[in-house]
Amino acid sequence: MGVCIPNIPSIRSVFHPTSQVEKFASTLRAEALVEMIAIPSQHDREDLRTEHHGPARNPQRHGSYDSKIHLPPDFKPWLTGDPYHHYIPKKEDPWQECFKLVLKFDDEMCRGWREEIDTLLVFAGLFSAAVTAFTVESYRWLQEDAGDIQVQLLQRISSQVGSLQSNQSQPALSDTSLSTFLPEPSSVRINVCWFTSLTLSLTAVLVGILCKQWLREYQRYEGLSAQDALPVRQLRYEGLLGWHVPKILSALPLLLQAALVLFLSGLLDLLWTMNTQVASVVTAVVGITMVFFMATTIIPCIQHLAHLSRVWTVGGREPGPQCAFKSPQAWAFHLLITEVFSLYSSIKRSLFYGTAANYLQAQLDSWHSDDANWLTYDQRWRIHGRFIERGINWFDKTFARGNSNVDAINNVYHCLESLEPHVSAACVSQIIDENWDPLVPLVGLVQPALENFQMQPMAEDVPEAFSNDMILSSYLVVHHKADNRIAFRCMEQCARMLNSPALNTEFTAIILEVLKVVTSPTSTSPSDLLVTQLLTAFKRLFASNLLSIDEVPTFWSVVLRMAKQNELPAGRSPLPLTSVRALLKHVERWLARVVDSPHLTIADKQYIVTRCSIGISSIRGMLNPPPEDNQPDVGEDDSDLDEQTFSLFQEVLDRMLTSLGGSYSTLKPWVGSENWGRATPGLY
Length: 684
Fold this sequence. Notes:
Helix content is about 65%, strand content about 0%. It is mostly helical. α20 packs antiparallel against α21 (about 505-520), α20 (about 485-500) runs parallel beside α22 and α25 (about 600-625) packs antiparallel against α26. Keywords: Membrane, Transmembrane, Transmembrane helix. This is DUF6535 domain-containing protein.
């Protein structure tokens, strides 16, 4: 049928390279195509001027269907920065709505801890009273009984009186002549157990009081707005976990249980039998308790000074988890140490220098003020870490995962919308890492773009409105199944980006992958206006040469999915035919440039034309379905026009396939060459 071109490589090897060399060559061919179509032709420039304003200037060149392409007079492409047409419900203050859920989470968590501490304190009080009643008696066993001393004195006096009567001399009475008292070993063991038990019980009371102080400071947000309080809460939450406060709370019952075991051991020893060593043992236990108490008092200040001297002098390094041991005595110690550093400047200079010294000096005055507290300390701390990013990621992971809480997803979206692009990009990047496998193709495309948006300053060729749409659509695609309004907003943002001057081949690949995910055949059909906007925006991919070789199958897959989404009565087209005709015109011109390009191999040209042929054959049957008996017939003019449109386009593709070796040799691996116009939706 067509001219046979020798030395044509196997089309299957081009589609599925089996070696690294073939994969590298395929990449080079894709880059060559991008370079080849970088400068639009004269016809392309005419298309760019007229693509939204009526028919093409040269209808004879592209077939008679060009003259039938008319969009509504009031049609206006959606652009980045314009008001949105698909509404996502928004509360009065999304930050406040998010913070309410966080406060509810913290209230439930801290309320459980407080109730447990209160219960343990009541038990510790009753238990200590019981142990005290026993120790009041047991400590007497460690000293000599006064009655025994009196007996010894009476015996000594009696002996002296007897000596006088017998004229025998007796040594003078002295204290050293009395027998030395040694408590029974059992008495020592019993007192060790009981006094240790009493000390542990009181230790549990002390630790419980400290924990309640930490929890009180954890939930203190006086004077902070919801947007400022959320990152402060996140740094406190990380500190709460990083410094093992839940583990300490869990240790309180163990202390009381150990106290009970010791008390019972002493009681058993008393029953089996009845020393200065007791004081040393009890002192050791008290010493351990006081070490813990002092450590929780001074560690926050020591950690702060360590960060000043080692961390904040190194650019880009974040502080570690903030110490959560916040109590009034710890804050008093903090003020005392800063006063010492302000008085002894020589010591300060030996420990701090550069940025750390300037930071410390700038903060000394505020620490001396009467209203300085842990809240201002947290505010200074949070500016050195990405707590707003981790806070939103934690909120999304806790409340929005599983797409069950649509309100939480909407609130996160509006919170991201109010942030700077570099901050919201970091938030979305962490959310994608938490929700999607890194092997998903969309993740590999979106994450590098989000990393670029996090850089400061941002690229001048990317407007802020475009970056916001890219970032927000990347978040919505994670939760597109939660609500149709979320999917439609994501599709609208894709249409706006496709019409943006900042669009390039990299962004095109991301947008097509996003659309491929959100245009699920099982979801509700989008509005005709949204579909028209997308199809009209697709023209620019071909008119401005923004579609790479690798994205050709993805493009046709998106169009096919959009057609499948619209479940209309038989006899009606699921896609706006006017937009489809305009799109086919630009596809034809783009294919003509591809076929005429001297920079592409025959295999690349065959691949591109074949994929476009498969795409057209997949959607043709859906655009012109036969009407059912109980449905009204489509107007003959429209039906004839659509048939003529696809017939003309098929003739163009036939000529291209002939020039590339014939439709049989080119299309055989994919569709039947005898009737390649038959729909083959399974390929996508």
